[in-house]
Amino acid sequence: MDARIRTARQRLGDECVVLGHHYQRDEVIQFADHTGDSWRLSELASKASGRYIVFCGVHFMAESADVLARPEQQIILPDLNAGCSMADMAEIGQVEAAWKQFVRLGLCDESGRGITPLTYMNSAADIKAFVGERGGAVCTSSNASAALRWGFDRNEKIFFLPDQHLGRNTGYAMGIPLNEMVVWDPYQLQGGLTAEQLRRAKIILWKGHCSVHQRFLPEHVEQMRAHHPGIKVIVHPECRWEVCQKADDTGSTDKLRRLVAEAPAGAKFAIGTEIHLVSRLAKEHPDKMVVTLDDAGCLCTTMYRISPQHLAWALENLVEGTVVNRISVAPEVKHWARVALGRMLEIKG
Questions:
Q1: Which fold does the domain 87-210 belong to in CATH?
Q2: b/e map 254-273, b = 16+ CB within 10 Å
Q3: The whole model's pTM is what?
């Protein structure tokens, strides 16, 4: 399989660029021209010289790449089943229905005056377009606090989706108490909240989460410290609030990688994030102890769907002149999603 992939890559030459997300399995990421998080890869895709961008990630990442891509570029996702459970927890119809209820209660108007909507990068293109059209922006885990400050400069309230944990952890770190952040449940009447709760809230959090990061528990931190005295626990802000409070540090994927890289030899880390990234960091830094916070190993099963077989199939079709699994965002969605992503770039981290 490796030989087939290499042969197809050689035949395609500079016409094809392969991108690999940090959570991707080693058997696939070894063929990536560029590696990184979802935003970095989308940005790299737009600057790449290749006509074909094969994105070894998940669906929302390929969508973002298409939003930013040049007209002549085509984005390919080797397996269309590679989705994101968090992104799927915010469906556009549900989000539009929630906004209508905010308007009905007098919390904002349709254009966004009264509430600033912010969406995490881990969301579908139509959700990005929704916030863009209403004066909001996209954020990453790296600039979430800057995005919240940007949002509060415009309105007194923030509507944050789809990850409640990133929103709560970021808000709390900025000094917003937990009782001023409420969770909107799209499957409950009026989100399961009273009108008074919504009026008092500074941040309305969407009830969504990352299936990988939610698996880390406070007792995992306690057990790790008991078994490895002096170990430093670092976690992604998609983890539960209780886990982040017990950790030594929190940060985006790039920050977690940097903390390990910059530590002296002999340093010990337990990391609360996806297992492929943790394992790769352990291999890259054999002079340090790098283990997962949960011994069961938290795997992003949807990212894992991209296999060498899928990559070979996509590349060999390109060699034959056939584009498979192209990800194409509708023009009207692409416009407002690009606006929201553009605002994200303007927000200083």
A1: Rossmann fold (3.40.50)
A2: bbbbebbeebeeebbbbbbb
A3: 0.91
